[in-house]
């Protein structure tokens, strides 16, 4: 423990008392994540306020072989931001690095500290008639650095891509404490290996992102939302093809929602009435957005007409005001709350080819119901990304320990079905801790060697966010 | 030489006589590139026709320490596909692997052999009402594998991104001969480090791409083209901001063209008349494309009107037919021919922030003209990508040896100015051989270590496309 005490003393010397939290009560808000999960307490939470300070902390911890865990808004869903058990890890929070460094609306770029909150970034862009188009439920608390480390996705990936497509430059403190300044504001740059791409999605295991150049888009000045009722998942997929073409790729969202989710939303928010005149087995919540002279209302009406003519769409509501659109989106938000109210359940974040969604939903539902007829299946998600949240709600009266074991089994079963479809066990949430064994089990020997080799290249001592993504050394 | 003879015998045994070319005359068409450059002859050109055969060739060459150079359509512009001097390298051509393996228009994906020609891929997509939106001058001969290895860009990057954004899955033969099958047709997949991104842009130095899953988009069913005359580069940049907003991000091209290029085009293609009533210092060639009910004509007219009102646009021609649009695009193609007719000249492919284009063009022009008042500067390019081809034509009567030395000096000067703007010496062409020293000189020690470390991780013996991107061992 003397080494640790020595390091902590030096950290306090460098960062001051407010920069190094050691009181368990003060550290409390850094130890659990969005879902309320927790593992252990850290040795300390350090809060550097500059890139240089981050570099000094990393170098100092490296000299003493201390393990470091970089932390953003801890809104992740795979346990990646939870301090490890045993209390030997130092959490490095980026929260004090929260300045917008520059905005260049002519270049459609913005340079920010990694600790900036996504919502703040979006607001700052909007002041220049631009948008940073990443859109997540957690955007009021997640940080850009975490979005980068996890290659965050969200609702608008269909049109704008994941974080990987939205970052032009990075500033990174490497695990040896050197600063890698790659803060370029270039839309095109084709020099050598894609080092920067490695950091995107590396989950804090290859270095600490301290700053980034983000790509902006024109802020849409109009958008239209529709909620449609459909007879089958097949109809949803066929409508998606029509919508891509009929809406000139101006689609910003195309969400699949099963009837059960509409019910859960109404349970969670009793003021919500049934959105359409009748109940339908499947719904699509879609949005188109544009700048300039495009008649989005006519575009959606035409699509609705075409969809009805082909018997893909049975009924639909087109929001005629922002308030109405907000109400339609309320179903998407309240259905999450409705699931949460049902207590412990299996949340997944999987991907299959778009064309395979109907067959996958059918096959996976059959397999799950065969093993566990009393469970409820809720499959919703981002159709255009082939990304489903195929969630399973256990019976409310099942004992907690039994629930945990049972859901774990069902997850394994679901992943087996996913393998038959050449799908992904993590479409956007990442690996962290909770998907690690399923991830490793699916790597070929060659992939495992390359992945381990990259970790060793960047972080030979294995001190950076150890145990996330890959097993600890 | 016995080792080489032994390997060649085994290659012939495996691939047959037609699979292993050793006759200098037969090898002739594999030794030079698009620009007509050449260095040396290879030991042999091998032409495997399957992924397994590629893997066997790579393993066999690896066992004997033979250097291998993968080759696509050899249309690169940085000397990456040229066999090295000394005749000890084996060229591995992918040309016999040219099957479209599968098209899934519902998933908007296509699985292809690496040797497929880009134009063939685009045609196959069009048969399913889809487009593979990479668009290059060389698309009639470049191959998908080469597009991947060089992370190709082109005309439509503004809307659809570079190759990096258009590839969902890869099949790769690693330098030790193992096949890495990552042929997933998933639009979202967030599992672990971005290994696949490393291969994109690796210029054949980390492995041989044998197959790929490509992302398709709906084939636009309408497009409109306009050629506009503008007073200054500043006006071009301001118009670009207006166009992004006024055209609802349906822009597929926004090309900057100086007056001199219009003249060069008319010199090369005498049937082309002056495109507008008067001559203007700068032109913009722009295109918008859409599917579905959008009035693109009205959209462009509105933009033209707004641009004129703000005195950004002085005059403009809107093509009212496909033939007229083709004629406007003819200027873009003929101006390249016009440059070629001027003989040896400096071609560059650089990037700066879009907002810095006017200041960069001014500063770089001043510096070049100060050193070399007799040279002609031609700066054109993809405005939305901040990507300029800032080319320099020496006086026609300058001696060849003098030209070469002089242009080399001017390139170094230009790159110095670029450094002041935090720009890129290679926006899309890559590094290959011709940009290697300028690339290496700009790497920080940490970057150099990481880049070399990645090369060593994938290719410890340094046999794969040795000497390109990085110096040979």
Outline of this structure?
Two copies of one chain form a homodimer. Helices cover 37% and strands 20% of the residues of chain A.
What does this structure look like?
Chains A, B: Keywords: FAD, Flavoprotein. Chains A, B: It comes from Billgrantia montanilacus. Two copies of one chain form a homodimer. Chain A contains 16 helices and 18 strands. In chain A, strand 5 and strand 6 form a beta hairpin. The two termini of chain A are 20 Å apart. The mean pLDDT of chain A is 96.
Question: Could you name the key traits of this structure?
Answer:
alpha+beta, Uridine Diphospho-n-acetylenolpyruvylglucosamine Reductase, domain 3, Uridine Diphospho-n-acetylenolpyruvylglucosamine Reductase, domain 2, 20% strand, 473 residues, 37% helix, Alpha-Beta Plaits
Say how many strands of chain A there are: 18
CATH class of the largest domain in chain A: Alpha Beta
The second-level CATH architecture of the largest domain in chain A is: 2-Layer Sandwich
Quaternary class: homodimer
Strand line-up in the sheet with most strands of chain A: 15-12-14-13-17-18-16
User: Of all protein chain pairs, which has the greatest interface, and how many residues does each chain bring to it?
Assistant: A-B, 95 and 95 residues
Computed Rg of chain A: 23 Å
Number of helices of chain A: 16
Biggest pleated sheet of chain A: 7 strands, antiparallel
- Helix and strand composition category of chain A: alpha+beta
Q: What is the fold-level CATH name, i.e. the topology of the largest domain in chain A?
A: Alpha-Beta Plaits
What is the total number of structural domains of chain A? 4
Give the terminus-to-terminus CA distance of chain A.
20 Å
pLDDT averaged residue by residue of chain A: 96
Helix content of chain A: 25-40%
């Amino acid at each position: 423990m003397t080494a640790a005490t020595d390091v902590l003393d030096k950290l306090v010397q460098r960062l001051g008392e407010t920069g190094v939290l050691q009181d368990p009560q003060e550290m409390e808000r850094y130890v659990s994540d969005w879902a309320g999960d927790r593992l252990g307490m850290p040795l300390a939470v350090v809060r550097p306020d500059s890139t240089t300070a981050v570099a000094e902390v990393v170098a100092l911890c490296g000299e003493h072989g201390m393990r470091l865990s970089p932390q953003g808004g801890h809104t992740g869903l795979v346990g990646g931001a939870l301090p490890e058990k045993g209390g030997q890890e130092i959490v490095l929070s980026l929260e004090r690095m929260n300045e917008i460094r520059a905005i260049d609306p002519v270049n459609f770029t913005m340079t920010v500290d990694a600790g900036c909150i996504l919502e703040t970034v979006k607001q700052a862009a909007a002041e220049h008639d631009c948008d940073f188009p990443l859109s997540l439920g957690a955007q009021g608390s997640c940080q850009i650095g975490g979005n980068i480390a996890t290659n965050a996705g969200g609702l608008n990936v269909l049109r704008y891509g994941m974080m990987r497509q939205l970052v032009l430059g990075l500033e990174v403190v490497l695990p040896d404490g050197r600063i890698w300044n790659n803060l370029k504001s270039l839309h095109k740059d084709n020099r050598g290996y894609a080092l920067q791409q490695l950091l995107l999605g590396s989950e804090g295991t290859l270095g600490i992102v301290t700053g980034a150049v983000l790509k902006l888009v024109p802020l849409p000045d109009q958008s239209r939302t529709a909620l449609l009722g459909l007879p089958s998942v097949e109809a949803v997929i066929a409508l998606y093809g029509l919508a891509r073409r009929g809406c000139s790729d101006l689609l910003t969202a195309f969400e699949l929602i099963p009837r059960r989710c509409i019910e859960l939303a109404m349970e969670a928010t009793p003021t919500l009435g049934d959105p359409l005149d009748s109940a339908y087995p499947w719904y699509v919540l879609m949005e188109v957005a544009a700048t300039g002279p495009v008649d989005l209302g006519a575009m959606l009406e035409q699509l609705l007409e075409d969809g009805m003519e082909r018997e893909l769409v049975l009924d639909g509501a087109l929001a005629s005001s922002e308030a109405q659109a907000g109400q339609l989106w309320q179903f998407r938000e309240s259905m999450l709350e409705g699931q949460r109210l049902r207590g412990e359940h299996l949340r997944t974040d999987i991907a299959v080819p778009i064309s395979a969604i109907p067959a996958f939903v059918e096959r996976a539902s059959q397999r799950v119901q065969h093993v566990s007829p009393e469970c409820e299946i809720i499959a919703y998600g981002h159709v255009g990304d082939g990304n489903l949240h195929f969630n399973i709600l256990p019976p409310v009266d099942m004992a907690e320990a039994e629930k945990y074991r049972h859901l774990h089994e069902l997850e394994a079963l679901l992943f087996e079905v996913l393998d038959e479809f050449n799908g992904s066990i993590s479409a956007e949430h990442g690996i962290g801790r909770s998907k690690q064994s399923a991830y490793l089990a699916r790597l070929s020997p060659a992939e495992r060697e390359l992945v381990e080799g990259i970790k060793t290249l960047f972080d030979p001592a294995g001190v950076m966010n150890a145990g996330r993504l890959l097993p600890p050394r």
